[in-house]
């Protein structure tokens, strides 16, 4: 598909708050399905975290940058049947570094969606990992991507 054809298929709206720290883009294909892109930065305990969340129909892509804009390790996580467990695979990066894999696993448990997570949080930094995960989960909840408690641990097909 040529780039000229793509322009006719998508509408993009970008909003930025007054501090300039957050931007959200909503991309719609015109048939009700949409992609929402949210980017924000948080300064926590003298560390700058950069976040990007891309919400697709049944999947979330999230990126966490710690003091830089490097991609870091890349993980894929998904709910598995029949016992509603979560499977996590390392796509890029070392298998010995499980910093992002635990975050990806917990996002799947809280959203019920497939997750691709890229993060460059330093190894052996549990406090940084906890801070980054807390901020990411706060934003996912604010955006309405988490499941309600009434849905419990049962994952749906939708």
UniProtKB/TrEMBL annotation:
One of its GO terms (cellular component) is proteasome complex. Signal peptide: none annotated. InterPro entries: PAC4 (IPR032157). Keywords: Proteasome. It comes from the Eukaryota. One of its GO terms (biological process) is proteasome assembly. Coiled coil: none annotated. This is Proteasome assembly chaperone 4 isoform X1. The gene is LOC104610569.
């Amino acid at each position: 598909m040529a780039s000229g054809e793509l322009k006719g298929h998508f509408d993009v709206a970008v909003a930025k708050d007054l501090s300039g720290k957050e931007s959200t883009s909503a991309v719609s294909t015109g048939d009700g399905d949409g992609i929402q892109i949210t980017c924000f930065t948080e300064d926590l305990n003298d560390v700058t975290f950069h976040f990007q969340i891309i919400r697709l129909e049944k999947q979330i892509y999230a990126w966490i940058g710690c003091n830089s804009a490097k991609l870091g390790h890349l993980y894929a996580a998904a709910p598995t049947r029949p016992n509603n467990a979560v499977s996590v695979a390392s796509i890029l990066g070392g298998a010995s570094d499980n910093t992002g894999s635990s975050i990806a696993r917990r996002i799947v448990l809280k959203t019920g969606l497939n997750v691709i997570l890229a993060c460059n949080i330093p190894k052996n930094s549990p406090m940084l990992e906890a801070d980054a995960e807390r901020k990411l989960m706060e934003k996912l909840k604010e955006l309405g991507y988490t499941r309600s408690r009434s849905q419990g641990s049962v994952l749906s097909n939708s």
